Automatic annotation (TrEMBL):
This is TRF-like 6. Residues 493-552 form the HTH myb-type domain. Keywords: Nucleus. CDD domains: SANT_TRF. It comes from Brassica carinata. Residues 501-548 form the Myb-like domain.
Length: 594
DNA sequence: GTTAGGG
DNA sequence: CCCTAAC
């Protein structure tokens, strides 16, 4: 693969984190378009990494901001002045704060960068040693496994391509690895390993797992600050870990792409949207080595794992767009979106796991080596953010209940005013919100009883009678008591208030439809159902829909007096026939005719 | 705020 | 009955 047809848009994929030893958070100190690079440092022998702290970031600032912008230019990515750069947009958009920058040394290592790098990697070593003493107490150095991920990847590369001079070094003990340097002959490779080896042979630059597990809270907080560019006062270790992990994870999300650089120029790249959208996971797991390749200066090095496990942000966006265009007229519901995002997130995690198992993971960020990454999400709560397991976020309960009750109360107020009288009813309803917490069983039985009675009585009720229907006064309080208790004894969710439609209601509805027309639900509600405080216009609509179904489901040959075979309520066939008649009539008659 | 339609 | 997009 590695075909190269690219659009300018796709150049951002150059920001493929690709094994950079740093990612670039946009810290508060350094806004938009002025990316600060910071290093992730692998701490001690176990492969754990911590992001650099602010001091270190500052150090980096001078050199790397500069080199980063160099990178942009050499890659053809121009954070156009005057208009906000893509990065800044990204920054604004979400938690995708950290978008890794492809460093220029991928293409064109300059001595400047090299120097600066070796400089501050030394500083890091010191820092690391401190950290080590601080936190690495219990972890044996030989636990250092994951840091070789990238190396393995390069190993693969070796198989497929030309041998890489430094790959063997790299594999032995996970030595310093600057594999983001594409040119093996770059001075960096000589400089850095030396520096690292002198102090800590085992020390490797980022390239693998970040283990936050054993960090003390303080360190976590610092890491947090380094990652997100802001302080945190949270002392919850778990929260911090997750938060950091998330931040880092997201920073590694970059689209899968093909991209070719030749002679320090971006020759082209290609996002085969089919490939991407087809099966992201497949791409992540296996395909990438062949699907995303960097060709630099004649050296062909596959960036596989870099762009591989990665992001679905853009990819899935395209994907879902396509899908939507194809078969959706309606906007996807929130539920749909959430479910989509859920599966998406899952796939990310899964893919990463896959890659872990394939030892080709470069950027998997897991909370600790063995443990699973918990998929969580952060929800704002009372000003602070709370992390919750990322299960379906669909609101199944009805927070709106009170609101609905009020609404209904309101409407019934109006109705009461309009029709005069019924102040008793009104009062009884208004009281109810205070008495929300009641056991559900009582009202239910009550409700059933009353509605049963109603059914019997209402057969002879006329519309005029309905104002004094026992229903009205008797049920209204029940209704609102139910409102507050959607939970049943069993703990399951139960419908808030199920009130069977009485025959009189049905007939009223039918009459209303015949008078005002189907679809004029609010009118019908207002004019015919004024006394039925509980049937909303939506209810009417739903009921009518059901009636229609019932009426058309029933064979026309049925005689009057026969009843629905099964169903909670027996709707006399004459009513069904009437419904049907109305339906047919109204479907023919233009709505405004009436 | 109402209506339509899926769930 | 509930939810929510669309109007």
């Amino acid at each position: 693969m590695g075909t190269v047809v690219g659009t300018v848009e796709d150049r951002r994929e150059m920001f493929d984190v690709s094994a950079q030893t740093r990612i670039t958070p946009f810290s508060s100190t350094n806004q938009i378009g002025n990316p600060v690079a910071y290093k992730l440092v692998r701490v001690a022998g176990d492969g754990r990494l911590v992001p650099a702290t602010d001091e270190e970031i500052l150090e980096v600032n001078e050199t790397d901001v500069h080199s980063a912008s160099d990178a942009c230019q050499s890659l053809g990515y121009l954070p156009t002045e005057g208009s906000p750069s893509r990065l800044s947009q990204l920054e604004e958009t979400s938690e995708v704060i950290n978008l890794g920058l492809l460093r220029s040394d991928n293409v064109e290592p300059s001595t400047d960068q090299v120097n600066s790098q070796s400089e501050y990697s030394e500083e890091f070593l010191q820092k690391v040693e401190q950290d080590e003493r601080l936190v690495m107490v219990s972890t044996p150095p030989d636990a250092n496994i994951q840091c070789c991920n990238e190396n393995n990847m390069f190993d693969e590369d070796q198989v497929h391509h030309e041998p890489l001079p430094f790959s063997s070094d790299v594999q032995n003990g996970c030595d310093v690895n600057q594999s983001n340097t594409v040119e093996p002959s770059s001075p960096k490779e000589t400089a850095l390993p030396a520096a690292a080896a002198s102090q800590k042979p085992d020390f490797a630059l980022v390239r693998g797992e970040i283990c936050l597990d054993n960090l003390p809270i303080k360190a976590l907080q610092e890491t947090f600050r380094a990652t997100f560019g802001r302080e945190t006062t949270v002392k919850d270790k778990t929260w911090l870990k997750r938060r950091i992990t998330m931040g880092l994870t997201k920073s590694f999300d970059v689209p899968t792409t093909n991209l070719t650089i030749k002679d320090n120029k971006l020759v082209g790249n290609q996002v085969k949207s089919n490939d991407v959208s087809d099966d992201v996971r497949a791409t992540n797991v296996k395909e990438a080595p062949s699907s995303s390749a960097y060709h630099v200066n004649g050296h062909s090095k596959e960036a596989s794992a870099h762009s591989l496990g990665v992001n679905h942000y853009w990819a899935t966006e395209d994907f879902s767009c396509e899908e939507r265009a194809a078969k959706r007229v309606r906007k996807p519901t929130r539920r749909y979106i959430e479910e989509l995002s859920k599966t998406d997130d899952k796939s990310v995690v899964i893919s990463k796991d896959h890659r872990l198992s394939e030892k080709s993971e470069v950027r998997s960020v897991s909370v600790s080596s063995g443990k699973r990454v918990t998929v969580t999400r952060v929800v704002p709560l009372g000003g602070s953010e709370v992390e919750v397991p990322y299960v379906s976020h669909v609101r199944r309960s009805r927070p709106r209940e009170n609101f609905m009750a009020l609404m209904e109360c309101h409407t019934s107020c109006l109705e009461a005013k309009a029709s005069g009288g019924e102040s008793n009813l009104l009062n009884s309803e208004v009281v109810s919100p205070g008495s929300v917490v009641k056991s559900a069983s009582g009202p239910i039985q009550n409700e059933l009883a009353t509605s049963h009675n109603n059914t019997n009585e209402e057969n002879i009720l006329t519309e005029a009678d309905q104002d004094i229907e026992p229903d009205s006064s008797g049920n209204s309080s029940d209704e609102y008591n139910n409102t507050g208790t959607p939970m049943m004894q069993g703990g399951g969710l139960r419908r808030k208030h199920h009130r069977a439609w009485t025959l009189s209601e049905v007939t009223t509805l039918v009459e209303g439809v015949s008078k005002y027309g189907a679809g004029k639900w609010s009118e019908i509600k207002k004019l015919s159902f004024s006394s039925h405080s509980h049937r909303t216009s939506v209810d009417l609509k739903d009921k009518w829909r059901n009636l229609l179904r019932a009426s058309f489901a029933q064979s026309p040959s049925n005689n009057v007096g026969s009843f629905k075979k099964h169903g909670s309520m027996h709707i006399p066939v004459e009513i069904l026939l009437q419904v049907r008649e109305l339906a047919e009539k109204q479907s023919l008659v233009p709505p405004n005719h009436r």
